[in-house]
Design brief:
4 helices; mainly alpha; globular
C-alpha cells in the first residue's frame, strides 16, 4: 500500500519530516520501523508524533491519522 503526499497541502501546520512520519504511521508502521526507514532514532519518531498530536489538540495518533485523511494531507 502506497499513500501519496498531497503536494498542495500547506506545510505550515506540520513539517515535511512530520508528514513523512505521519505517512508511515498511517501505513501501520511501528515507531521502531519508522525510525529505521527514516534513519532517525525511535525517540525522535515518538517526539514527532507527540508534537503533532499536541499541536493539533488531539488525544492520540489515531485522531491525527483521521485528521490527515480528512484534510487531504495524503491523496
Amino acid at each position: 500500500m502506497i499513500i501519496q503526499v498531497n503536494e498542495d497541502f500547506p506545510q505550515s501546520m506540520i513539517s515535511a519530516r512530520e508528514v513523512e512520519v505521519l505517512q508511515l504511521v498511517s501505513m501501520g508502521y511501528s515507531n521502531k520501523e519508522i525510525a529505521s526507514l527514516l534513519f532517525i532514532s525511535k525517540l525522535t519518531v515518538e517526539t514527532h508524533r507527540k508534537n503533532m498530536v499536541k499541536r493539533m489538540g488531539f488525544k492520540n495518533a489515531y485522531q491525527l491519522v483521521v485528521w490527515a485523511f480528512k484534510e487531504k494531507v495524503f491523496t
